[in-house]
Amino acid sequence: MCTVLAVSTSGFYDWCARGTSERARYDAVLIEQILKMHKGHEKNYGAARVHHYLKDLAYSCSRRRINRLMKAHGVCSQYHAYRRRRRSPGDAPVFDNLLRERAAVDKPGEVWAGDMTYLKTDESDFYMAAILDLCTREVVGWAFSRFHDADLVKSALDLAVHNQPKQQACIFHSDQGSEYRSGLYLDALVNSSITPSMSRSGTPTDNAYVESFFKTLKNELIHQRKFKSIIECVANIIDYLGFYNERRLHSGLDYLSPKQYQLLQSDCP
Question: pLDDT under 50 in the chain at which residues?
Answer without folding.
Answer: 82-85, 88
